[in-house]
Amino acid sequence: MSLFERIYGPWNEQVLHNLDANGLRHRTKTSSGLWLGSLVGLSALLTYLKEDKSYSEICLVTGITGFSLFISSLCLVFQLRKEKVVAKDYHLLYFLPAIISAISFLHIGTKGLFTSAFWGIFIASMGTWGVIQLMSYLPGCFTLGEATAVMHGIILFLMSTFQNLPLRYHLRPIHSNDIVTVILQVLTLSVIAICILCAKYPIFRKTQSFYFLTFAMMVFITRPALNELLDQNPVYWVISFVLSSKSKILLVTYWTACLLFAFISINCQILKGDKATTSIRKIFHILAVMVYVPGLILEPTLLYLASGVILSLFLMIELFRIYKIPPIGHFLQQGFTSFADEKDSIVSLTPLYLLCGLSWPLWLPADNMHILILMSGVMTIGIGDSAASFVGSRWGKHRYINSSKSFEGTYACAISQYIFIVALALCGYVNTGPLLVRIICSTVLVSILEAYTEQVDNLALPFVNYLCLSM
């Protein structure tokens, strides 16, 4: 038994035991995903460290926040492995990342004392205690690692928003990428506010109240805020941006066709009344590849805008489904029943994880990122995971011990990613030279991880691949 297994195994068992003893329902019985929780913070920190001296303020805040989240994930694990711990309490150890974060913002980020202290406490509290509250509020939806990754992603979004929007009030964005960032931040904040209000106040779950809330939020808060921050009409800007070039128009038309195909596929599966198999669900992974590859190559800013809008749309769709809001609530529930897998519970997290896994590199505040790093999610969950599922389910004969995964699926996962990278190189879209060793190592590691991990592939694989290619 390796040193890692001797240390990780008992910690994993103790954490799972403590979570169960505190009444926190875990998604799996054997794997807490301790390692997954630290990847969001590490990704954000590495993004900042890899940027040159021209980094933006938002990149600096992201890097400091990422470091603080990494420390928070370690403190959370150390606290939860203690015997007879009261998991839902706020523990003294959680002040450590708060202090480190506050000092970092004060000296590296050159923020004021009050701002540094407030941000430090916010990041540490939500990055530790907030993870437990998330698991308590949505029982059975997460492993500890998944809940940590989700909460840390939310914190990164909020911190970048806190940094960016006040700045844009005084300094209007000029470049398209900066304008898109402001639009997505305000839109996502508005949708999150709607979600919180619906969850907290049952009156907003009623049909008329829900539509009134949504209309009021978008018309009286979101649009005026964007008008003020951008000094122009956001709707007109988006329309003019999409129509500004033939490639954008063709790309949006092509994406619309892909979306229509996805809708028809879902409708056909609902009409059949059967539970979708894993192979059928992987069709949406292939569709995602068809959407993201041309978008990343031709119009990454347009894809950035589209991915953020789709995220907000997914969140609104979940509200319609969970609260059965007409006219589409019943149809959405039928689709959920047909396509939900064992990883879905109260909330349909699989499509959200897929979108976030594919879009994560796009959402990070980095300039001139290598195209293969931008495609971290596409390579792993779009190409590799789909190939592993397809080959493993049809020709997999040699199974891993105590697993349904096969060696044939692992080979397919690795080989398909290599073929994809070679195809991009032959077409002249990528230069693999600087990343060759990292490509080989990351592909092998991701393929093995896909076979062994019980964590959600759509989260774990893109983060690991991003870290390997970025180092």
From TrEMBL:
One of its GO terms (cellular component) is endoplasmic reticulum membrane. Its EC number is 2.7.1.108. The keyword Membrane applies. InterPro entries: Polypren_kinase. It is a multi-pass membrane protein. It is an enzyme of class 2 (transferase). Coiled coil: none annotated. The chain crosses the membrane at residues 32-49, 55-78, 90-108, 114-132, 137-159, 179-198, 210-229, 249-268, 280-297, 344-363, 369-391, 411-431. It comes from the Eukaryota. It is found in: Endoplasmic reticulum membrane. Its main location: endoplasmic reticulum. Keywords: Endoplasmic reticulum, Kinase, Membrane, Transferase, Transmembrane, Transmembrane helix. One of its GO terms (molecular function) is dolichol kinase activity. The keyword Metal-binding does not apply. Belongs to the polyprenol kinase family. This is dolichol kinase. It comes from Trichogramma kaykai. The lineage of its organism: Eukaryota, Metazoa, Ecdysozoa, Arthropoda, Hexapoda.
